[in-house]
Design a protein that fits this description.
With 96 residues, the chain is of the alpha+beta class. It is 31% helix and 36% strand. Strands 1-2-6-3 form a four-stranded antiparallel sheet. A hairpin with a 2-residue loop joins strand 4 and strand 5 (70-73).
Length: 96
């Protein structure tokens, strides 16, 4: 298994993820590109001390950006939607 700091990088806090958290008890994280769902589940349960019901992942393509006459591209990244069991929550997200 990869180092836990390489599995979970940071939470994704947007309007969409806030609505998903409130309605379906789903939280979202930016994760390492090469980690799988089992590693993500173990990392969330170990670091945040919650029970995970399911994990869905998506590879997000980086956007093409322009600065003057030159074009550049942001890096691709991987996002994980983690469904928590009923009754579990993460306190960090409660005040957002």
């Amino acid at each position: 298994m990869a180092d836990l700091r390489q599995v979970l990088k940071r939470p994704v806090i947007t309007e969409k993820t806030t609505l998903m958290r409130e309605a379906n008890n789903v939280v979202s994280f930016v994760v390492g590109k090469n980690v799988n769902k089992v590693e993500i589940k173990k990392a969330v349960e170990e670091i945040l001390k919650v029970s995970v019901e399911g994990v869905r992942t998506i590879n997000v393509a980086g956007k093409v950006k322009r600065t003057g006459q030159k074009f550049g591209k942001r890096s691709n990244w991987k996002k994980a939607y983690v469904t928590l069991k009923d009754g579990d929550s993460i306190e960090v997200f409660e005040g957002v």
